[in-house]
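Q: Given only this backbone (66 positions), what sequence would you predict?
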């Protein structure tokens, strides 16, 4: 049993799996933050475009109907 514990304590294969999991978590958080930032930027651009279209449409003559 003592030899098993010593071998277990020296085994570092689990450490590399934990490191990969940590790297994956950090990359995932970065991707999520970038996606949220992109969503906000797209929403602002769409709002600006809608405001511009609304401002251009005010005070103009309606299109003639056929």
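A: Predicted residues:
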């Amino acid at each position: 049993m003592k030899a098993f514990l010593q071998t277990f304590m020296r085994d570092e294969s689990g450490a590399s799996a934990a490191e990969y999991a940590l790297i994956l978590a950090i990359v995932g958080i970065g991707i999520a933050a970038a996606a949220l930032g992109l969503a906000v930027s797209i929403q602002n651009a769409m709002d600006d475009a809608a405001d511009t279209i609304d401002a251009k449409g005010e005070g103009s003559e309606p299109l003639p109907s056929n």
